[in-house]
């Protein structure tokens, strides 16, 4: 086990999968898969987390099918201008099945253990609910019951196996909950976890030279941001985006993989996007506005 990691056991919350858009081919998930397939790490998901992810995948399929139905209504002339003329929807179930299979394959290849919550006693959880202890917060605390059972199942596993476990949460409630259990180590992001399993000597070396390459990183991200596709909301009449510019503010850099003198970085940054949006206005016939938006997301380089 890498010297920066204190345990090879890892649990990942649904929010982390959502943050990566459930794209199991993304850079961070590919590295996670390599580590898990070689048993460098052992990923444990509760049945609650698994079902939440599957529910979100079903929602993806439903949303995709709806959008592709709208595509089907476009004229042939418009379709010829689009990059892929094969986007003809057949049925929603096809998309749902294909997306679920990707998740099934990921579970199998990563040798993920699915942890049942069937043996979790509900009594202590209801006590925490009425006392408003983590993971129950002050607002919408009833919605925290799934996390409460998932947390209890992980706590039970740690106790039965006399082991520590990383919990990648991205959620303040998970962070507070882990404070009450010394065997559960909270990690905010997936790239933060991956860095713990990279070669520590090479990670240190890369971080020492980061100040010297930060400007190059910034330019590289700005180039990528310049190729982002911008879509105007459907509630605008004949709206289009013109002249979008992005300014990059690097906030954090993680070395998610380092071996054989090579390193892969995950860069958390803020994109300040300035764009001119034009659309028809029924009241004034025409209006042009400037709009600024912020996007914060990791970028693998």
Structure summary, number of beta strands: 8
> Which sheet architecture does the biggest sheet show?
5 strands, parallel
Total count of helical runs of at least 4 residues:
10
- Proportion of strand residues: 25-35%
Uncertain spans: 290-297
**Class inferred from helices and paired strands:** alpha/beta
Order of adjacent strands in the largest pleated sheet: 3-2-1-4-5
How far from one another are the termini? 25 Å
Helical percentage: 40-55%
Radius of gyration: 23 Å
Q: What is the approximate shape?
A: globular
Mean pLDDT: 82
**What string, H for helix and E for strand, traces the elements in order?**
EHHEHHHEHHEHEHHEEE
Brief synopsis:
Helices cover 45% and strands 26% of the residues. The chain has 301 residues and is an alpha/beta fold. The strands form 2 sheets. It has a 5-stranded parallel beta sheet with strand order 3-2-1-4-5.
Main features:
301 residues, alpha/beta, three-stranded antiparallel sheet
Task: Explain how this protein is built.
The protein is of the alpha/beta class and 301 residues long. The radius of gyration is 23 Å and the shape is globular. Helices cover 45% and strands 26% of the residues. Strand 6 (237-259) and strand 7 (262-281) form a beta hairpin. The chain has a five-stranded parallel beta sheet with strand order 3-2-1-4-5. The chain has ten helices and eight strands.
């Amino acid at each position: 086990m890498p010297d920066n990691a204190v345990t090879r056991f890892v649990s990942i919350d649904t929010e982390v999968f959502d943050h990566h858009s459930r794209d199991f081919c993304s850079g961070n998930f590919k590295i996670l898969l390599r580590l898990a397939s070689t048993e460098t790490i052992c990923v444990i998901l509760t049945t609650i987390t698994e079902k939440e992810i599957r529910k979100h995948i079903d929602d993806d399929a439903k949303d995709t099918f709806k959008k592709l139905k709208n595509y089907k209504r476009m004229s042939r002339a418009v379709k010829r201008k689009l990059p892929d003329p094969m986007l003809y929807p057949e049925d929603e179930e096809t998309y749902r099945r294909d997306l679920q299979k990707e998740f099934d394959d990921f579970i199998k290849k990563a040798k993920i253990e699915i942890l049942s919550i069937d043996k979790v006693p509900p009594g202590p959880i209801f006590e925490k609910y009425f006392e408003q202890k983590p993971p129950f917060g002050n607002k919408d605390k009833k919605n925290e019951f799934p996390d409460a059972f998932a947390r209890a199942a992980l706590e039970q596993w740690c106790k039965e196996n006399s082991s520590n476990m990383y919990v990648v949460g991205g959620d303040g409630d998970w962070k507070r909950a882990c404070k009450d259990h010394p065997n559960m180590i909270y990690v905010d992001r997936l790239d933060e976890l991956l860095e713990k399993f990279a070669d520590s000597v090479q990670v240190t070396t890369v971080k020492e030279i980061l100040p010297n390459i930060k400007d190059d990183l910034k330019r590289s991200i700005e180039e990528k941001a310049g190729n982002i596709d911008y879509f105007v909301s459907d509630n605008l009449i004949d709206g289009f985006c013109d002249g979008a510019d992005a300014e990059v503010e690097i906030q954090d850099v993680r070395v998610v993989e380092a071996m054989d003198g090579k390193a892969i970085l995950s860069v958390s940054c803020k994109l300040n996007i300035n764009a001119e949006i034009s659309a028809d206005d029924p009241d004034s016939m025409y209006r042009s506005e400037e709009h600024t938006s912020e996007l914060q997301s990791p970028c693998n380089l």
